[in-house]
């Protein structure tokens, strides 16, 4: 009997540190079936992160 694969929750999305913020915003919107442009990643200052910023730099801004 084959083992059934457990579904992983969609909210746990791993992002590469060299991916851009814009790419992750699009992936999150697509995964959650939201309209394009409705997801924005914010900096600790509550400003919208630039789309060309890398995820690694974004996480460093948040102290990760």
Please estimate the helix content. 25-40%
Give unreliable regions as ranges: none
- Number of beta strands: 0
Output mean pLDDT: 87
The percentage of residues in β strands lies in under 5%
Overall geometric form? globular
- Gyration radius from CA atoms, angstroms: 14 Å
Derived structural class: mainly alpha
Helical element count? 2
Order of helices and strands: HH
Main β-sheet description: none
Compute the separation of the termini in Å.
43 Å
Description:
The chain has helices at 21-31, 55-61. The chain is mostly helical and 64 residues long. It has a domain at 17-40 and 49-64. The N and C termini lie far apart (43 Å). 3% of the residues are buried.
Helix and strand topology:
Elements: H1 21-31, H2 55-61
Main attributes?
64 residues, mainly alpha, 0% strand
Nutshell version of this structure?
The chain has 64 residues and is mainly α. It has helices spanning 21-31, 55-61. The model has no long low-confidence stretch (mean pLDDT 87).
């Amino acid at each position: 009997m084959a083992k059934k694969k457990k579904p992983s929750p969609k909210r746990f999305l791993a992002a590469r540190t060299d991916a851009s913020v814009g790419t992750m915003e699009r992936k999150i919107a697509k995964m959650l079936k939201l309209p394009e442009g409705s997801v924005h990643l914010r900096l600790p200052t509550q400003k919208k992160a630039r789309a060309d910023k890398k995820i690694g730099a974004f996480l460093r801004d948040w102290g990760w």
